[in-house]
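Annex B. Sample input.
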Amino acid sequence: MPFFMYQASYTAESWAAQMKNPENRIQVVGQQACEAVGGRLVTGWYCFGEYDIMVICNVPDAKAMAAIAIAIGAGGALKSGKTTVLMGGAQAVEAIKQAGDVANVYRPADSQIPVAGKSRQRKGRSPQSVTTVVDAPNRPS
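Annex B, continued. Sample output.
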């Protein structure tokens, strides 16, 4: 089963409610939510910074993780949430290897942009100043 990281920020109202009835919401809610989709809560932490909590879930697939994120988000206790797919080292190495196959066929929309890993001379620079450009994949924001 794949691993996902879910990060969330509580609303002020949610923090106020938790102050009235303190409990480890990560353990209670996280475990129940993961088990409801046939998975398990691996770990969870309270955080300082952009997000207030972070959990690692091991659930059957992306649809199961989406169900967790949608249900928790719909509850109204969060002002933001973020889900990240996690890969182990072996999976990352396989992805890096496969990226070479994609780089061989990928062409940017702007024909002036070089193919990944190819060198080009920048305008206004001497021939000794050659820069290697590696294009990163575009990700939705």
